[in-house]
Amino acid sequence: MFVVKVDENKYKFNERYKDKYTDKWRTASVTLDRDTPQSRKKAKALIDEKINNQKKVVKNITLEELVEQWKNNHYKGLKETSKRSYGSALKVIQKNIKSDIKAKNIDTKFIQSFFDSEEISKYSNNYILIMKIVLKMIFDYAENLEYIENNPLNKVKVTMKKDTQSKIEIINKKFLEKSEVKVFLAAFTKRQYRFKLTTEFLILTGLRFGELQALRNIDIDKNILTVQRTFQATSNVQSPEFTSPKTSNSYRKIEISDRCIEIIKEINFENSILQQDELFSDNGIIFCSKYGGAISNTNYNQVLKRVIAKTEIDKNITAHSLRHTHVSLLAEQNIPVKTIVERVGHADERMTISVYTHVTKNMKSDLVDKLNNLSF
């Protein structure tokens, strides 16, 4: 620290410091009416406080400003589906937490009370977990930029709601039993034959619908199918665009059955006929529409709805239900859950385990019935 005498009764005490953001040297100063050891001590304390306050200016960021900064940084290269998922969670968060609250004032107790509130407990376990994941990423970002000292989410405990009977019934309605698969496939008409083949392929492979939409012949080598891309949900089905799979776990190679190979041959043969139409636009995909575009997920689900309505199966079956059906069929074959999780490319194995557990419980129940029927 150096002192400059301004006039007879004024002394300017100065201290040089380096700005951590610009790497430039700056000077902080304070003026007192005398230059004594006590004055120097007082000046040092005042200057230190001044420097620290200047360094902390950026830390007075509000939650709203923090969220916007995080989005600008994190949303780059993020899939549209993930943006929608995060955006939906953020709407609930911002509705229930004041946007002008300072990020540095948000502590574990505050976040814990948010998740324990009656308003948030109304949401599903899945949705609450997404909210926690989003908040954790936002405050990780804040901690890295030194807006806060510690992430308040690190010690937050979210209590999951226990499965009720109705939840178990919902899980049961998410997939078809093996006996129901036969009935369901038999209900397709001749005009719906291409949809029937598509449905059977999804049941046999467990692919996500977007992965099926993006499938090419070059993705199949003998009985090995490589999942390396998916349909871009924001693109037009007539002029489809494709992107990388949902998660890193989604990149995978799976073995497919001889029946899958037969289905691909049938579809390819039909495609060769469709390609003769001058309106056909070849996008290089196997399971294409009449004019070469991607199959519409909405239209496909409507077909499934009409087909299931002709049966006595009381379930709301969608393209995603066929993925759960695949899991249930593998569970019935006693395939280990870890193998199933890897096959379907799940990053989060909870739904796989839910279906697997439900099926294996039924298998144990059947085993008891068979033991009861044993006689000697």
Biggest sheet: strand arrangement: 1-2-3
H/E element sequence: EEEHHHHHHHHHHEEEEEHHHHH
What is the CA–CA distance across the termini?
100 Å
- Structural domain count: 3
Largest sheet, described in full? 3 strands, antiparallel
Per DSSP, what share of the residues sits in E-state strands of 2 or more residues? 5-15%
Unreliable residue runs: none
Class of secondary structure makeup: mainly alpha
CATH top level label of the largest domain: Mainly Alpha
User: How many helices does DSSP assign?
Assistant: 15
Q: Determine the CATH topology of the largest domain.
A: hpI Integrase, Chain A
Would you count the extended β strands for me?
Answer: 8
**Morphology call:** elongated
In the CATH hierarchy, the architecture of the largest domain is Orthogonal Bundle
Write the layout of secondary structure elements.
Elements: E1 2-7, E2 10-18, E3 25-32, H1 37-56, H2 63-74, H3 80-96, H4 108-116, H5 118-121, H6 125-144, H7 165-172, H8 178-186, H9 193-205, H10 209-213, E4 220-221, E5 224-227, E6 230-231, E7 242-243, E8 252-255, H11 258-274, H12 297-309, H13 319-332, H14 337-344, H15 350-372
Antiparallel strand pairs: 1-2, 2-3, 4-5, 5-8, 6-7
Helix pairs in contact: 3-6, 9-11, 9-13, 13-15
